[in-house]
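Recall the central idea of this unit: under ordinary conditions, the amino acid sequence of a chain determines the structure it adopts. In this exercise we apply that idea directly, starting from the sequence alone.
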Amino acid sequence: MQYLFCKRNFYFKFFFICKLFLFVSIYSFAQKTIAITIDDLPSALPKISLMHSVEINNKLIAELDKKKVPVIGFVNEFMVAVDGEEEERTEMLRKWVSKGLELGNHTYSHTGFTTGNFHKYENEIRKGEIITNKVLGEKGKKVRYFRPPFLKIGSTVPEKEKLNLFLADMNYTLAPATIESSDFVFNLIYLKAKVQDDTATMRSIAKEYLDFTLNRLKFYEEVSEKTAGEIIPQIFLCHANDINADHMAELLHLFTNEGYRFISLDKALEHPFYHEADDYIGNEGISWLLRHSNVEDREVFFKIMPKVKPKIRKEYEAVQDNQFIFLLEERIKGASVRVWLLFAFLGFIILLVFFFRVLFQKLNSKLNFYSKFLVIYINEFETGMNTNLINLKNKSIL
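Accordingly, the structure predicted from this sequence is:
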């Protein structure tokens, strides 16, 4: 009797564990997932100062580490190899790696892949991994992913094939994106407001950005269901800029509030959809979901895709035209000692040029005076000589 009871108890526990495992598996499968990718490390344009870049990185890393989000950052090394600041900027990349975050290649100077520039583009990719590989190498790692600027991977079949073969030869995996929310547009307006201590505009444009990101997220969910038959693991593309650094907590909450769990890019790319052939040919860099939509659906999606409000787009263009002026003070405040020494040297050269110009003008004035005096003297001398010659001639005749 006791044996039967124990056996029944064993089977009860066994079936309970199986049901629990099945429930967890179904829940994990059903739960939406997303990989966060951040472009333009150590900081996106406009370039302001070393201090500004450090602030952006510290904020991003702190929030991502706090939430344990497995992010990958894609590096533009021209923003690291800054004369006089390279070591400090390299240290920013080390901070990412020290927190277990991954780094990828985004070309050296954010060059887009356009028709006829493959050789230049190839050099950009090679040059764009040097410092990043050095940093990753300190931890026994190396660059594995390449994110093409503007998501452009070739506008013709031969160009795409060339790039794919080159990336394979470099042991790179292409890092696509499914969701992008034009953060660079909102960021420039936000940055101007931040520089001018306009907190009201900062709050309003940050809300606009988050609302727009939510609309884009829901839109791409619909595209995913239509194109892939399910909501695939999404890959979100944003940039290392002020609006994301200041509002990363709200951005992450936006995704979790929509039922998403954060996963690595590695994990997202395990989904079969990312291994399907990409037949899209075009000049535009677009979402991986749109690349795999049929032509008719793609045209419809482009029409109904949430777009930045005209008012915000117009404000962005106005700020873009005048960004040098409103960023000048910040750039001066954040200038390094090396930059100040350069300014001092240039100032010294300008003063030196001014001094010699004044000196030359004074010398020229005196030379003019003496040359006039000399001319008068020579004229008088010639007149005197002529008079003497005439007198001598007259005497000889007499």
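The chain has two domains: 32-335, 337-398.
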